[in-house]
UniProtKB/TrEMBL annotation:
<dbReference type="InterPro" id="IPR001806">
    <property type="entry name" value="Small_GTPase"/>
</dbReference>
<dbReference type="InterPro" id="IPR005225">
    <property type="entry name" value="Small_GTP-bd"/>
</dbReference>
<dbReference type="GO" id="GO:0005525">
    <property type="term" value="F:GTP binding"/>
</dbReference>
<dbReference type="Pfam" id="PF00071">
    <property type="entry name" value="Ras"/>
</dbReference>
<keyword id="KW-0547">Nucleotide-binding</keyword>
<dbReference type="InterPro" id="IPR027417">
    <property type="entry name" value="P-loop_NTPase"/>
</dbReference>
<dbReference type="InterPro" id="IPR017231">
    <property type="entry name" value="Small_GTPase_Tem1/Spg1"/>
</dbReference>
<feature type="region of interest" description="Disordered">
    <location>
        <begin position="1"/>
        <end position="74"/>
    </location>
</feature>
<protein>
    <recommendedName>
        <fullName>Septum-promoting GTP-binding protein 1</fullName>
    </recommendedName>
</protein>
<feature type="compositionally biased region" description="Basic and acidic residues">
    <location>
        <begin position="62"/>
        <end position="74"/>
    </location>
</feature>
<dbReference type="GO" id="GO:0003924">
    <property type="term" value="F:GTPase activity"/>
</dbReference>
Amino acid sequence: MESKVRDGSGASGGASKGPSGESKLWERPTRPVAAEKAPGGESKMKDSEEDGQAEGASALGEVDKVEQGATDKVEQGVTLERNLKASTNSKRNSLVVKIGMVGDAQIGKTSLMVKYVEGKFDSDYIETLGVNFMEKSIALKNAEVTFSIWDLGGEREFISMLPLVCNDALVILFMFDLSRRSTLTSVKEWYRQVRGLNKQAFAFLIGTKYDIFATLPYDEQKEITKTARKFARAMKANLIFSSSSHSINVKNVFKLVFGKVFNVDCKVPVVKKVGDPIIEYCTV
């Protein structure tokens, strides 16, 4: 296994407005962000299930009407296949899968990336300035797959670098801090901005800092979980609660990414109980 890190530099001025919780956040932007071309623990709480399926679909269903249903599914498959072929290295049967990570500042994006690639966690990580980049290769029987992971700093000043992270990505991880609801609300604007640049990438909704979430009152856990489920349905995204500091669902995030990209069953069990580290699949 081989990994490497590259830090990006900050960007300033002239960028489109960053996440701000505006009223029409789930709409596509009328004019996409100007793009530069990119380089190629645990809590056992009282069980309570929410019905909420119809509610989520009706409240946020408008977000994906512009995707044009089945037509876009076909286009998505064609685009992903083309991108995979384009990212094939000179070494035969070696594929690069680009993964973008977006979300507000200080929610644990870098921690998740470093924990997965290097198996380390440092509570004193310095906030990402610009873009961080790491790779991890997975040796299979007849091929090698490299996850190329791009982590965008969450401050507004770095929004001009969003194209660098999103363009040509096959997967986007939309991330939020389970202990700060405002970061979940911001996912709406991140989603709008990202889809203005990349309509085909698979979306994942990742809640971080589950270890803190597990200490919250049950009613608060229930409300956060309900909202996250609603967002995940609207985004057609798998939903995963994780903790880098306690190694909860870190590997499972990337197992599910692999399964989604290559259309294989990675046999990661579903977890639905409120208060537990949720793993739910998109069924749309």
